[in-house]
Amino acid sequence: MEERELAELVHLVGRRLRHGYVRRLVPLGLSPSQARALRVLDDAGPERPLRMVRLAEELRIVPRSLTPVVDALEEAGLVRRQTDPGNRRSTLVVITPEGRVAAERARDARRQAGEELFAVLSEEQREQLRELLSVVDAQFR
Predict the structure, then answer these.
(1) pTM of the model
(2) Which of 36, 60, 110, 118 lies at 20 to 30 Å from 43 by C-alpha?
(3) How far apart are CA 106 and CA 32, in angstroms?
(4) In terms of C-beta density within 10 A (0-12 exposed, 13-18 middle, 19 or more buried), how is residue 91 classed?
(5) What are the distances in angstroms from CA 122 to CA 21, 66, 111, 115, 119?
(6) Distance (Å, whole) CA 128 – CA 59
């Protein structure tokens, strides 16, 4: 068996993790982008709704790409839009109680996908991998 380069292995493992995550999101009626938006809104807290522009920044996408995500979440009753009282030209995205439940379910789905994928590793190996990936990630923050 030929040895694969590190970047390819990371890509393949990431893809497998994403597929496991998506498979768990489907019954929740969420896409990965919707789940990410809910997570960011949930992490901001109920007292801190985010402007659409800020939410797009947090998700690292352009604001026009966020509109269909928020539309779908709003249609599902997971978020609502409201005019920003501090700047009437801006729109705030507010997570609903149902959205908080969905965000937690999406977190569980991601956790389960990771647990399934990394079950072949010992606890010590998982911790080692977590530390190594944290070092790499810290370089880009």
Answers:
(1) 0.87
(2) 118
(3) 9
(4) middle
(5) 21, 39, 17, 11, 7
(6) 28
Is the distance from CB of 45 to CB of 83 less than 8 angstroms?
Answer: no
Distances (CA, A) of 87 to 28, 55, 74, 91: 34, 16, 21, 8
> Which distant-in-sequence residues (6+ apart) come within 8 Å of 22 by Cβ?
31, 32
Residues 6+ positions from 42 with CB-CB distance below 8 Å: 95, 99, 100, 103, 104
Residue 86: per-residue pLDDT: 87
Residue 137: the pLDDT is 92
56-97 pLDDT, tens per residue? 999 999 999 999 999 999 999 999 999 988 888 889 999 999
**pLDDT of 3 above 80:** no
**If phi over 0 gives left and psi between -120 and 50 gives alpha, with beta otherwise, what is residue 92?**
beta
**Rounded (to 5) percent helix, strand, coil in the chain:** 70, 10, 20
